[in-house]
User: Fold this.
Amino acid sequence: MQLHCPNCRSSIVADGINLNLLVAKCASCSNVFSFADDLDLSVADKPQVDQPKRFRVENWGPDLTIAYRWYTHAVWVLVFFCVIWDGFIVGFYSSVIAGLSDGKVETMDVVALVFPILHVLIGLALTYACIATLLNKTTIRIGGHQLTISSGPVPCGKAILLQAADIRQLYCVKKEHRHKRSTSYTYELNALLRDGVSKTLIQSLTDYQQARFIEQQLESHLKIVDERVGEEVTSVAQEYADR
Assistant:
């Protein structure tokens, strides 16, 4: 069959078609669109995603465990920034406290101790984020008819506990984060419960394939037939457009 761009109606060449993601990119107008509907394919017909490198999977009968580390090489940029930031704060307070210990207590010295409190809080938050990224891992476990998701050893949010029977569908969505001069994207894995409520299970995944892999593993283990969810449909095309 011949694909045509829904925006400008130009024919799509083979190089612009991604059969794994079922999306295409028009060479004429750069429009990215899904052609799954044209092929009459459901989400369940998509190929299985390969296991990401940082992921570990253990499947023992009724129990399933998926674990992955938070660590990425990009964290070292944040570590370097934290060293500079924290070093400045420590040096500043050391000089002020040294002046106070000499008995020269002045109003300006006291003000100097209080004024950079916001910078201290930012430094603590960044340092905490660095330590968590270096040490933490997320563990997703199905056992005893329950789904649990926890992260550690550095505390970072409450663990999630759901009854497996309450999960109707799993789907991943894309989140856009606008910065001053750039835009970044992360991906979430959500659960649609039988009462119609959607619950976010995992946030801040840097790759769509990671979210999709977890979704497929959980759906396969829980014997959930994959169906389209409104928010999920566009995320496939958007992920391809960002590459």
